[in-house]
């Protein structure tokens, strides 16, 4: 087995073990392979090992890879990759995102959501989206405050070409498991609160809680994550500035 396949097996084992500890079914957590800064060959290796869902942060870089898989004959068998945008989106990039991605995890402004809905091509299914919540309070960080999540969710639920699926967060690395759980639990609380009265609030029942990365996926799963976003533990260390 190559390294990426070995790493994927290790991550699946970590997910299964974390699910067992939390008395959860192992298929209740989806693995999103975060391939930012890595090339199409690395993604193809993960694909060959059975991985289908990939996360990307940098829009231009991602679109080039997505196009490569869609157009190059070498990759003609790679028809069922699912692309998740997990990076911040500027207004001038919404069209590229609407045209190329299947999911967006980082909705934290209605204006961006409206543009994505308007620009989603009619022949594609709705863009699946999560509301990004800022659970550790940094004022310069992305994400809505927990108390603003409901209003944004209600507005997003009205947009025809988006389908609201859940909540995501990117907390700062915590010093230990207990501290990580305390922060992830705040995102879980937002997710549960939205679901508790979703029909009164005219939002769909949410099924996705996107949280946990290479270093803290166990804490995220213990706190209810349904989708972990794992990069370096699969593809290796990134050496590009700006990634985290
Ligand atoms: C880079 C990134 C990840 C993956 O981080 P690793 O520590 O490499 O697993 C997950 N989520 C987001 C939003 C990221 O930017």
Textual characterization of the structure:
Helix content is 40%, strand content 16%. The chain has nine helices and eight strands. It has helices spanning 3-21, 40-48, 59-71, 94-100, 110-119, 149-157, 177-196, 217-222, 232-235, and strands at residues 30-34, 53-56, 82-85, 103-107, 127-132, 162-168, 208-210, 227-230. The protein has an eight-stranded parallel beta sheet. α4 (94-100) packs across α5 (110-119). The model has no long low-confidence stretch (mean pLDDT 95). The structure holds pyridoxal-5'-phosphate. Residues 34, 36, 57, 86, 170, 213-215, 229-233, 243-244 line the site of pyridoxal-5'-phosphate.
| Strand line-up in the sheet with most strands | 7-6-5-4-3-2-1-8
How much of the polypeptide forms β-strand, as a percent range?
A: 15-25%
Give the helix proportion (percent range).
25-40%
Name the poorly predicted regions. Answer: none
Number of helical segments? Answer: 9
